[in-house]
Structure formats: structure tokens, C-alpha cells
Amino acid sequence: MSEAAPQPKPASRRAISRPIFERTFSINSEQAIRVIRDSYHRLMVSLYAIDVILRIIGREETVDEIESLVSQMIIECAEQLQQEKSRLEKLKADNGISETPTYTHPREFVAKIASPQIAQFVELIRLLDQLMIVMDTLWLCQVISNKHCIAARLEWQQRLQRLANKIVTMERHAHQAAYEQGHGEEVRLARQESGLNMEPQSSLDTDAPKE
């Protein structure tokens, strides 16, 4: 009985060369560091995947709608952060406070900007960090209570994390819709070519405090 001829291996597909910015920031507050640790990597992949997946299944108008929705959600959150930061800065000025604290364990954050929405969210993280610095200043100067500060820190941290979770959920729904429409293999290959099937490299130095 003759042996079956070996099947040829499928030709490897060339990875897509996509544009990306790498920007390095110092992040001071524990709340902003936690958002990066818990939400940033998955969000970065989801934002890019939304564009990749929906364009594969030929729904350009849906891509535009989702990108617009995501941008608006981020803008609204940024406006809320900025309003609170301005309010606290006025409170700081009214109390004649000019000091700014240093932090014991700031981290270097390397942001990989692969889409405009990722850039928007990175700026949101930086704005959260700035807000926390003003809030911590007022707490150290006894203008706001320990109880109030703890609650406010958690509230703003969770606000960004909830926003990230909403965007990740949108991407998962788009992914599932693509499979249900028979585009599963196309989606898999597109994710592979775009590097979306790979674990992102760590973008936050968490091993040692920055001197």
C-alpha cells in the first residue's frame, strides 16, 4: 500500500508593516499605574482589532461609527477629568499651596501608539496622573480629608477602567459577529499578520523604583 503524498504546507503570509509611535512618559500616581497594568495592553489590542476585524467583513460604515463612539467616550471622560483637575487646582491656589509632591515609585511608561484612539486613551491616563498629583497635594496639605481622598482616587481610577472594559467588550462583539458571518479564518489571519495574536511586550517598568 503506497503512502499518501505529504500535503504541501500553506505559504506563510507576510506580516503587515503598520505605523506606530513609541512615546515614553513618567507616571507618578499609583492609580494611573494601575490603569496601565490592568487595562492598557488589552485595550490597545482591542482598539486596533476593531478596525482590522470590521474592515475585513466589509462594514466600513460600522468602523466609522465605532471609532466615532470610542473617541466621544474618551473625550467625555477627558472633559470630566479636566473639570475636576481645574476645580482642585483652584482649591490649591485659594489655599496658597505652591508645592508639588514627589513620588516614591514612579514608573516609566512606553506607550505604543498604533491608532488615534490609542493616543487619546494614553492622554487620558496622563490626565488622570496629573489629577491625582493635585489631589495628593491637597491631601498632604490637609485641605481634603483622608477618607475623601481615598474614595476619589478609587472613583477616578475605576472610571478609566470601566471605559476600557466597554471598548474591549465592543471589540469582542465585533469579533464574534465576524465568526458568525463566516469570516473566522480571515479574522484569524488578519490578527496574526497585525501582531494581534501575540502577547504585547510590557510597557511599564514595574521591577524597581525609578531613581
Automatic annotation (TrEMBL):
<feature type="region of interest" description="Disordered">
    <location>
        <begin position="190"/>
        <end position="211"/>
    </location>
</feature>
<protein>
    <recommendedName>
        <fullName>DUF1845 domain-containing protein</fullName>
    </recommendedName>
</protein>
